[in-house]
Amino acid sequence: MRLGKVSLLLLLLTLQSCFIRPAGNKGINYSNLVFTARVIRILDGDTMEVLYQDQPVKIRLAHIDCPEKRGHQPFGTKAKQALSDLCFGQMVTVQGQKYDRYKRLIAVVINDKKQVLNQEMVKLGMAWHFKKYSSDPLYAQLEMTARKNKIGLWEEADAVAPWEWRKPRKQLLNN
């Protein structure tokens, strides 16, 4: 009987090893890592996908929040296009910070023209400084300047911040 249990255990371990894929780069923790990768996809104004060592990595731009493309928030599509114009298809430098709850790498990204994309999106009036997660005074100043000059989404006096835009949607889903 004991031999049967041992044989069964060995059989299960052998079968399990057949179905476990090697982790490869999936196991890399990109937090606090600086790396160069090619931008392969723009999901919206503050989210992109890069290809690093043949593995796609989803990046969420740190310090900023852009209008929602989903839900058709004003300037959502323009913000996605602005980010695409700044970096799509380029090799970028990614300065990883941490992961968010959606398993996206929160990062500062620099394009081949040495522009910090996170800052450029605020300068272009395509993003808010996301004060809930960032206390960086530079982003606050960039937003104030864009507001003052009525650049991008600041052309509209009643621009709604993305975190406020998402609230009614959440409330509707919960009712």
Query: What gyration radius follows from the Cα positions, in whole Å?
Result: 21 Å
Distance from first to last alpha carbon:
57 Å
The biggest sheet amounts to: 5 strands, mixed, barrel
The stretches of 5 or more residues where confidence is low (pLDDT under 50) are 17-25
Q: Count of DSSP E strands?
A: 7
Give the overall average pLDDT. 87
Order of helices and strands: HEEEEHEEHEHH
Number of helices: 5
Shape, principal axes of CA atoms = elongated
| Strand adjacency order, main sheet | 1-2-3-6-5
Q: In percent terms, what proportion of residues is strand?
A: 15-25%
- Overall structural class, as computed from helix and strand content, comes to alpha+beta
Tell me roughly what share of residues is in helical segments: 25-40%
Can you describe this structure?
This protein has 175 residues and is α+β, with helices and mostly antiparallel strands. The chain is 35% helix and 25% strand. It contains five helices and seven strands, in the order αββββαββαβαα. It has a five-stranded mixed barrel with strand order 1-2-3-6-5. The protein has a two-stranded antiparallel sheet with strand order 4-7. The radius of gyration is 21 Å and the shape is elongated.
